[in-house]
Every structure is written in structure tokens, then in C-alpha cells.
Design goal:
By secondary structure, this protein is an all-alpha fold. It contains seven helices and two strands.
Length: 200
């Protein structure tokens, strides 16, 4: 999927930060995208090298994806966001509740994942549930979508499948993708399941 830049709304920010303050002093949005892209490539390669049939996915793993990808760029790499965020009028969970929410995410979803799947359909359902819930929680200040896509890829590869075809999601279909994320608020994962099925 092409990099789709859409600004968040942060209370008190007044839209000042197209480029977030970073450790490299980069002020160009094109340059920051390049460094972020390279960081995620390196992180995904490292995670693939480490991946085994016994790899356990939980929120510690998710935070590690974020840290590996962005540690050279942001001091908040691998840490929960401390600001409340909205996008397109949609309010993500309040920052102060994130530790509790992510604990429940582990207990109710991540710790329930089987180590091995007997069929692709059940794997797709679980990838869709994890993907939708993680994007709904939006635990990080930046790069939530990319972290969620790396995790989905790792879940697929662990079971012997290829990376998912997120690049197939067009700008028009991206609206459906956002609706599928919002549906997770009601624990409705069918819209995301249809998307993951189409790109699996």
C-alpha cells in the first residue's frame, strides 16, 4: 500500500507538526518518510531472521516492532503515546488508559492465539481481529499502521504464508479500511476480515 499521509488532530498542537521533533533534526517531510521507511525495512528483516514456529506475539512484541523501526528517529520509539489523538473526527482511546487497554488486548486476544493453525480461514480471522483492534487502540504517537502491517506479516509468515498484499489497497479502498478499523469499537471484525481475505 502506498504511504498515505493523513494528519492527526492533537489537542493543543494547532497543527504545527507536519514533521515531528526527532533525534536527527530532520525538518523535511520527504526526508522523514525516507528514514521511517528504511527503519521499518530493517526492523522487518531482523524480525524475519528471528521468527520461529515458537515466536509468541503479544504487546511486548508490538512495542519492539515500533522501537526497532524508529529508535534512531524518535525518543518515543516503543512507548505508548502520551497525547490524545483524533483523525477525521474519529477519537482514538484516551492516552491515560492505554496501559490498561493494551493489557486487556493481550489477555483477551493475543494470549488466545494458537501457536499453529489448521486452516487459512481461521488464521485470516485472527489476523483481521488483531489488526483491527491494534489500529483502533492506536497505541503509538506515530506509525501505528505500519506496525500493525508488520505484525500481520509476521503472523502470516509464522504459519508458512507470504506477506500480505497491503499494497493492493487503493486510496478509494482505504476509506473501507478505516471503516473496518472503526468497526472494531463494536468488536465487529467482519469488515476487516473481508479486507485481509482479499489481500492474503
Amino acid at each position: 500500500m502506498p504511504y498515505l499521509h493523513s494528519k492527526y488532530d492533537i489537542p493543543g498542537d494547532n497543527g504545527q507538526h507536519d514533521v515531528l521533533p526527532n533525534l536527527l533534526g530532520i525538518s523535511s517531510i520527504e526526508a522523514i518518510h525516507k528514514v521511517e521507511f528504511e527503519g521499518f525495512l530493517k526492523a522487518q528483516y531482523q524480525l524475519l531472521e528471528e521468527l520461529t514456529t515458537q515466536t509468541h506475539f503479544d504487546f511486548s512484541y508490538i512495542k519492539r516492532i515500533h522501537h526497532l523501526s524508529l529508535k534512531t528517529l524518535y525518543d518515543f520509539a516503543g512507548q505508548f503515546r502520551t497525547v490524545n489523538m483524533t483523525k477525521g473526527g474519529f477519537l482514538f482511546p484516551t492516552a491515560k488508559f492505554l496501559p490498561r487497554i493494551c493489557h486487556d488486548f493481550d489477555e483477551n486476544i493475543m494470549f488466545q492465539l494458537p501457536n499453529y493453525y489448521n486452516n487459512k480461514t481461521e488464521l485470516i480471522k485472527d489476523i483481521a481481529k488483531v489488526h483491527a483492534e491494534l489500529l483502533f487502540i492506536h497505541p503509538f504517537r506515530e506509525a501505528n499502521g505500519r506496525v500493525a502491517r508488520v505484525l500481520a506479516n509476521m503472523m502470516a509468515v509464522k504459519q508458512g504464508y507470504d506477506f500480505l498484499g497491503f499494497y493492493k489497497i487503493t486510496q478509494r479502498q482505504f476509506k473501507e479500511y478505516i471503516i473496518a478499523v472503526q468497526a472494531a469499537a463494536d468488536h465487529n471484525y467482519q469488515p476487516m476480515t473481508e479486507i485481509i481475505t482479499a489481500i492474503f
